[in-house]
Amino acid sequence: MTQLTADFYDYEALLGDEERKILLGAREFLAAEVRPLVTEYWDRGEFPHELIAKFREAGLTALSYEGYGEHHGAVSNLLSGMLAMEMSRTDASVATFFGVHNGLAMYSIYSGGSQEQRDRWLPAMAAMDKIGAFAMTEPLGGSDVAGGMRTTARREGDEWVLDGAKRWIGNATFADYVVVWARDVEDDQVKGFVVEKGAPGFAAEKIEGKTGLRIVENAEITLTGVRVPEANRLQGIESFRDVAEILRATRGGVAWQALGVMVGAYEIALAYTREREQFGRPIAGFQLVQDKLVRSLGNITASWGMLVQLARLQDAGVFQDEHSSLAKAFVTSRMREVVAWSREIVGGNGIVLGYDVARFFADAEAIYSFEGTYEMNTLIVGKAITGESAFV
């Protein structure tokens, strides 16, 4: 398959030959196996579980984790980002499923677990024989979860007892391993626990009636006296500061997803302008339509450039919270503009699911909010550039 029309500055050329081959293989796989399913499942609000085996067969699992997965060696952050973009260009829900499992859940274990824990859980997760979830957000706590986490952990001998509730937890209805974050009642520090499927006292109820990311099976979790062995406590996590290291890395992935949503919506709008005729000719030749397309392409190109440099900072090991926060805030804001312009170009048909742009328009709102709201990310960047904290 050829270069994307939205890649106006040929950012893909920055990849080496082997990584570009992986990206193009993913593009072909997503077009052939995923794209034909997403509209139906989005409409039904269900996750296509048959995709899990197909992801495994395509060799797209655990590419970021050296020693685990198909390639047994970590790929660059640039390729990881472009793969997230590619998935989201096809469907943001599928990208979110993958980001929760391969990103938040696996990275929590990879970065916060002991070597024994990594060897115990990651091989099966890398093969997608076991699926992961990440449970941090709570019914009464989102942006304030760092200091206001209500879920508690109490140690009793060689076990921990977890009590509380979590909300908006992707994959939780079917996950085999759920990384649950809870506040230790003894030292008041946040710690991480891997709760395995079937644990007594653990319940996950699917959230219905969503207007975006409908394929993602978000759940409300209740934990009632859930007993977890000390061996399932992530040994490298001692406070929320350690958790923040995980969020720093995964927040950049959400910005790549937002880029993918922009690209997907733009491609649909561009194709529509060539086919749709008004006043006897394609609307692609109308000045105001071209203006929306060019502004969209400008947002895409600027966002892509920012994310390329973010990936370089990650690969060099020098990126900070403010780097990923600026990317998340900026790119998701530009995404909102692009999906709105794309919907306008498609006109009344833009609200019909069969024309696809409606799906991107709706999904964009969820991506704009999760992994740190726009406002919270601006405060992180604001503190970095002024030296003054504006957090309440």
From TrEMBL:
InterPro entries: ACX4-like, Acyl-CoA_DH_CS, Acyl-CoA_Oxase/DH_mid-dom, Acyl-CoA_Oxase/DH_mid-dom_sf, AcylCo_DH-like_C, AcylCo_DH/oxidase_C, AcylCoA_DH/ox_N, AcylCoA_DH/ox_N_sf. Residues 17-128 form the Acyl-CoA dehydrogenase/oxidase N-terminal domain. Pfam families: Acyl-CoA_dh_1, Acyl-CoA_dh_M, Acyl-CoA_dh_N. GO terms for biological process: fatty acid beta-oxidation. Keywords: FAD, Flavoprotein, Oxidoreductase. GO terms for molecular function: acyl-CoA dehydrogenase activity; flavin adenine dinucleotide binding. Gene3D superfamilies: Acyl-CoA dehydrogenase/oxidase, N-terminal domain (1.10.540.10), Butyryl-CoA Dehydrogenase, subunit A, domain 2 (2.40.110.10), Butyryl-CoA Dehydrogenase, subunit A, domain 3 (1.20.140.10). It comes from the Bacteria. This is Glutaryl-CoA dehydrogenase. It comes from Lentzea fradiae. The lineage of its organism: Bacteria, Bacillati, Actinomycetota, Actinomycetes, Pseudonocardiales.
